[in-house]
Design a protein that fits this description.
Length: 373
């Protein structure tokens, strides 16, 4: 009796087990490899050759590593070999013959899926919107000129002229900031080119700065020697007109003939600060542009409300001014305090007094915050 079938040169995954020893009385045998029990996948995976004859269909599996013949081998019989062929036969499959059943993959195979390492078909994602932090160990290539402002993780909204600065404590570690190099930061500007009852600034004082610098120019106020008045506003924009302003001017008046006169003006518990005193801005010889006023100065702690118990003078300001009046040039300095103790939010500028109407014809001004460091 001989074996007819696939040649063993076309079979792979073969394990050679220890040959069996026969005693003429046992039909059950343990399978070992190098004297160690060998678990078989099934009797169909075994090829046993006795006396040169391949045994087929005449033994069964009785344990994980045990078989039983349906006959008792003769004690003089020789076991030529015991082969175990593992799982399946390994050979080169024909083209197009491997399908889902052989793969054992899960998921749905289609033109838009791929076979992943977990042996499952997954969908391809194209043009996906990424959310969350971008992480990964593989290389990520970004095309040139595609990352715009909206895709940056910045802690605040952009402002024209600002630049990105590193701020480790802010979201994304980046913050839009004004370019440095100056101790002043512009806050507000206003311009009046026609007659108004008043002008000024609202919400220009904040907790960002403690002190402020102002520049006013091209100031033109009506007729009849009208001064230029200053009042503060509270944080809600209401004008503070109580009699709690103290102010003083010290200056010099020089006429075109060379005559000099010292000037001192002051008031206590006034309802406003006189920024420019007795200022005739109606013009000389019909030329109103010749008599515009100019001033600049500093406002100290306009939002501070807590002082020593014996100190009731709160917001303090000082300024320098210059303006022509008739044939005279007026120049000097002024100082003032506001004693109310209210947190201040803005400024009102107006003309008035001297019997004339209360209005402003021309005004240009800017407020700057002074950096703390």
């Amino acid at each position: 009796m001989s074996y007819i079938g696939r040649g063993i040169d076309q079979i792979d995954n073969i394990s050679t087990l220890d040959n069996l020893s026969f005693n003429g009385s046992d039909a059950t045998f343990n399978l070992t490899q190098n004297s160690v029990a060998f678990n078989i996948v099934s009797v169909d995976a075994l090829q046993i050759q006795i006396d040169g004859i391949i045994q087929v269909g005449n033994f069964t599996q009785t344990g994980a590593s045990q078989i039983q013949f349906d006959f008792t081998p003769n004690a003089n019989s020789v076991c030529n070999s015991v082969k175990h062929f593992g799982v399946g036969l390994l050979s080169l499959p024909s083209d197009g013959s491997v399908n889902m059943a052989q793969l054992g993959a899960s998921g749905t195979k289609s033109s838009s899926t791929f076979l992943a390492g977990d042996n499952s078909f997954k969908s391809l994602t194209t043009n996906a919107t990424h959310t969350g932090e971008v992480t990964g160990s593989g290389a990520l290539t970004v095309a040139d000129n595609v990352i715009d402002e909206a895709n940056l993780k910045v802690s605040n909204s952009p402002t024209n002229g600002y630049f990105l600065s590193a701020q480790s404590g802010n979201t994304g570690g980046l913050t839009w900031a004004e370019a440095g190099g100056s101790a002043l930061e512009h806050i507000q500007s206003t311009s009046v080119t026609g007659t108004v009852s008043s002008t000024g600034f609202t919400g220009c004082f904040t907790s960002t700065y403690e002190n402020y610098y102002f520049v006013f120019h091209n100031i033109l106020n009506g007729i009849d020697d009208q001064p230029v008045y200053w009042r503060f506003k509270d944080t809600s924009g209401n004008v503070l007109s109580a009699s709690e302003y103290d102010w003083v001017h010290i200056g010099q008046t020089t006429n075109h003939g060379g005559q000099n006169t010292s000037v001192v003006n002051s008031s206590q518990n006034d309802s406003q600060i006189t920024l420019l005193k007795d200022k005739d801005l109606a013009g000389v010889g019909g030329n109103s542009n010749a008599n515009k006023g100019y001033c600049h100065g500093i406002i100290f702690s306009p939002q501070k409300t807590s002082y020593a118990s014996n100190d009731n003078q709160h917001c303090y300001m000082t300024w320098s001014f210059a303006f022509p009046r008739s044939t005279y040039l007026h120049t000097g300095t002024g100082s003032a305090v506001f004693t109310n103790g209210t947190a201040l939010g803005g400024i009102q500028i107006r003309g008035g007094g001297g019997g004339g109407p209360n209005y402003t014809d021309r005004f240009e001004g800017s407020i700057y915050g002074i950096k703390r460091s």
